Amino acid sequence: MSYRQLIFVFLFLSSCVSFAQNAHVKGIILDQENRPVSDVNITALVNAAQSDSNGFFEIEIPSNKKISLIFTHISLKMMSLTVNLKPNEVFVFNPVMSNSEEQMGEVFVSSKNKKRVQGITTIDVATIKKIPGANAGIENILKTLPGVNSNNELSTQYAVRGGNYDENLVYVNEVEVYRPFLIRSGQQEGLSFTNTDLVQNVDFSAGGFEAKFGDKLSSVLDITYRKPTQFGAAFEASLLGASAAVDLVSKNKKWSAVTGIRYRNNSLLVNSQDTETNYTPTFADVQTNITYDISKKWQMSFLGNISQNKYLYQPLTRETRFGTIDQPMELNVYYEGQEKDQYDTYFGALKTTYKVTPDFTLKLIGSLFHTKEQEHFDILAQYRLGNVTDEGEPEAIDFTRGIGSQLNHARNDLDALIANIEIKGFKEWKNDSQLEFGLKYTRESIRDRVVEWEVIDSAGFSINPPLIILPKNNQPYQSYTGPLLPYQDIRATNFNTVNRLAGYAQWNQKTAIGSNQVWYHVGARFQSWNVSGAAVEGKNQTVFSPRAQFAIKPDWDMDMVFRLAGGIYYQPPFYRELRDVNGVVNPNVKAQESVHIVLSNDYNFKMWDRPFKWVTEVYYKSLSDVNVYSIDNVRIRYIANNNATAYAQGLDFRLNGEFVPGTESWVSFGYLKTEENYENRGYIARPTDQRLKFAMLFQDYMPNIPSVKLYLNLVYNTGLPGGAPAYSDPYLYQNRLNDYRRADVGFAKVFVDASTKTAKANWLKGFKELSVGFEIFNLFNNQNAITNTWVRDVYSKNQYAIPNYMTSRVFNVKINARL
After folding, report:
1. Among 466, 498, 513, which residue's Cα sits nearest to residue 485?
2. 549-590: pLDDT as tens digits
3. Per-residue pLDDT tens for 173-223?
4. How confident is residue 21, by pLDDT bands cut at 50, 70 and 90?
5. DSSP 166
6. CA 225 to CA 301: how far, in whole Å?
């Protein structure tokens, strides 16, 4: 496919769709040793097809009829399959042909697609592992979806449709997982909680989600770890770290376990920034998911994780060029001191599932999360700001505009213990209706000490804090006799306990209106909580959250689903939302409220005789009791007083399908506008007001050498608000950062995978997968800024915004293997 065709798709989609009345069956045929089988004859009525050298086949069959497909091969036993498909439906079938016995089966495939009508995006695990990124993994793929934004490739955090990083739910095996509290910058994060080597299924909803999910305002990421059926092992290594995973199964098949260990070192990325450092990080974790089948009705599982992030950072020098062509400028900084941070987390969850009857299931889930975090640093930065004359010369500054220093100090420590116990139930009836319900108790115990101060001096003159009324400081023209105070000084000690009780009930129904298929999901949640502590006692607060979804699939030739979802969503405050900018806990912070409406259209169609999907979503959120915040890199600080209202509105598009046969790619486009009104001062842009977003995830291979693959991950985001000085009034400074532009590309030579020919070299016979890859991060070497450093010239009273650039172009190599 040419690039001209690709552009043609984007601009003239509506004229390219196919309205064929037939359905398709496709897949890869394997033998009992998981090797692709070529030359298999597939027949269905008068239609016929044959598998290629990679075992791939595709056959067209009549729709709305029971059709039998016959698979025959000269050296393997015949196999048959019976299906009944809707118009334009694509059924993926990967048969394993036996050489010992004949196989026959019947599959009745209806157009009911539960996740499709719920507005859930399912992400292929194999795609997650292949796509390059500075932080490769699930979050790396999420950032290519419409409505999901991030301007920080070093971070795994993301914002969804105007929300912030704290507004996203993350579940692993139905257990909510948490992030460290004290993380300030992306380079401190290291590892995401989710280990991609252990994942079986990934579902994501960007809004309008069901009542069975928790109390957050923006999104749900629902991850399921796999239950292995046979022994297996996987290994990955690159210049950024290494990981290994192993699948174990007992002889009687009752016990199974999947365990992974990871190590990561961000030095390769951090060394590409403007600041020269001595940087010795250690990010490591071990995870395991163990299951035990007590009987056919009763199963138990354990999910455990131990993680340690050590961040040792000693900046040395920094040289940043900025300004305009007519007036280029340069900032030189010389550092003393270091930063020592450590984040140790321990997580365990025990789940038991009991099938009371074939259509009634009960689950009991208990989890415990413990984190111990420290953030200690003393860093003195001495700077020189001047004009550049002969760019490229060793000494290019001929006029110095400012000289000064900045001393930052912190001794922040936090110890948090979060315990959960939950019971969930699922009852199904024969009329395509289900009842889901649950009740959950949570206890959060937080011990927190905050000690931070910053002193700023410009040419020997101390700069007073911006939010405190002091005598006017007009140095050096007039002497200053007022007190000398730190630019910022935060000191607080908090010992708090939060008790929460939450529950939900939800009714699901599939029915019909005439010949049109219809789905209903109606439910509600409640949560009651109380904050207490040594010096504070909050009142009991309760919220009630009704939610509903309606989806209809008209009886048209076009495979199209319309969906309307909405409700009243609440986000009761977590500990970080209770703590204000001075580190003091306000126990009576109310839950933020959002009236949320989402209207979407999901359209499956054929183009170039290959399957495609076009999804359009329009959404609106009206928010009240808003807890206003500011973002510095990835650190969020709340005002903690609920004195604002806000709204978010937008439009998202996504086109995905087989632009290249046998591979899935997609393009996304999103428009967002979100504003807030604090204390009736008028509406201004919120910190997450990311107006436009474009992203592309593209997979390809060389036609003549299909074992050489290409993977492209491209993101463009318009600039965020955030260019103003820290602690400034956002109503006076609505500066925006520059647009975020990034492209990561990967090339891989695949020696073995599911499509490899049956004949393998002797040294490859032990591998199920083996590939060697080469990656280029930030392919076009764009200078993306995450924040600004503000330098003050005491003589002119000007402040200069110096961009804090993210990573430049970086090269990486990696190897993947699976046994």
Report:
1. 466
2. 999 999 888 889 999 999 999 999 999 999 998 889 999 999
3. 999 999 888 888 877 887 888 999 999 889 999 989 999 998 999 999 999
4. low
5. G
6. 11
State the amino acid at position 432 in one-letter form. D
Whether the pLDDT of residue 455 is over 80: the answer is yes
Query: What would the two tokens of residue 411 be?
Result: 């001794």
Q: What is the mean pLDDT of residues 26-36?
A: 77
**Using an 8 Å Cβ cutoff, are 121 and 668 in contact?**
no
DSSP β-bridge partners for residue 724: none
Asked if residue 766 lies in contact with residue 819, where contact means CB atoms within 8 angstroms, the answer is yes
Q: Which residues contact 736 (CB under 8 A, 6 or more apart)?
A: 719, 720, 721, 722, 723
User: How far is 156 from 199, CA to CA, in rounded Å?
Assistant: 17
- Residue 796 — very low, low, confident or very high, per pLDDT cuts 50/70/90? low
Q: Among 272, 242, 239, which Cα is nearest to 813's?
A: 239
What is the Cβ-side half-sphere exposure of residue 654, based on CA atoms within 13 angstroms? Answer: 26
Q: What is the pLDDT of residue 726?
A: 64
pTM across the whole model: 0.83
8 A C-beta contact, residue 157 and residue 150: yes
Q: In what order do the strands lie in the sheet with 103-106?
A: 47-50, 41-44, 66-73, 76-84, 103-106
Higher pLDDT, 587 or 270: 587
Provide the β-strand partners of residue 441: 421, 501
Tokens of 463: 């700069």
Q: Answer yes or no: are the C-beta atoms of 341 and 298 closer than 8 Å.
A: no
Q: Give residue-wise pLDDT tens across range 86-103.
A: 777 788 888 888 764 444
Q: Is 301 helix (H, G, I), strand (E, B) or coil?
A: strand
Summarize the chain as % helix, strand, coil (round to 5): 5, 60, 35
As a residue count, the chain comes to 819
Helices (H) and strands (E) in the chain, counts: 6, 44
- Tokens encoding 106: 């019947």
In angstroms, the CA 471 to CA 474 distance is 9
Q: List beta partners, residue 169.
A: 220
∠ CA 713-716-722, rounded to 5°: 130
CA max distance for the chain: 98
User: How big is the CA angle at 76 (ends 74 and 80), to the nearest 5 degrees?
Assistant: 105
Give the C-alpha separation, 529 to 400, whole Å. Answer: 57
Contacts of 802 (CB under 8 A, 6+ apart): 320, 322, 331, 385, 788, 789, 790, 791
Range 795-817 average pLDDT: 83
Q: How far apart are CA 742 and CA 715, in angstroms?
A: 5
- Report CA-CA distances (Å) from 224 to 176, 194, 376: 12, 10, 36
Quick one: tokens of 184?
Answer: 């300030």
Instruction: Using the structure block, give the residue that is written with the tokens 């329009």.
Output: 618
Structure tokens at 649: 């509105």
| Distance, CA of 785 to CA of 633 (rounded, Å) | 10
| DSSP category for residue 191 | -
Nearest to 654 by CA among 12, 145, 254, 25: 145
Q: Which residues pair with 357 in a beta bridge?
A: 360
Q: What are phi and psi of 209, to 5 degrees?
A: -80, 170
Q: Would you call 328 exposed, middle or buried from its count of C-beta atoms within 10 A (0-12, 13-18, 19+)?
A: middle
Strand partners, 71: 42, 79
DSSP designation for 736? B
Tell me how far apart the alpha carbons of residues 471 and 464 are, in angstroms, rounded to a whole number: 10
Mean pLDDT of the chain, nearest integer: 85
Q: What is the mean pLDDT of residues 136-141?
A: 89
Spatial CB neighbours of 260, under 8 Å, sequence gap ≥ 6: 195, 197, 198, 243, 244, 245, 246, 286, 287, 288
CA distances (Å), 684 to each of 163, 214, 430, 677, 793, in order?
15, 29, 52, 7, 29
Torsion of CA 749, 607, 657, 548, to 10 degrees: -170
Gap between the Cα atoms of 693 and 181, Å rounded: 28
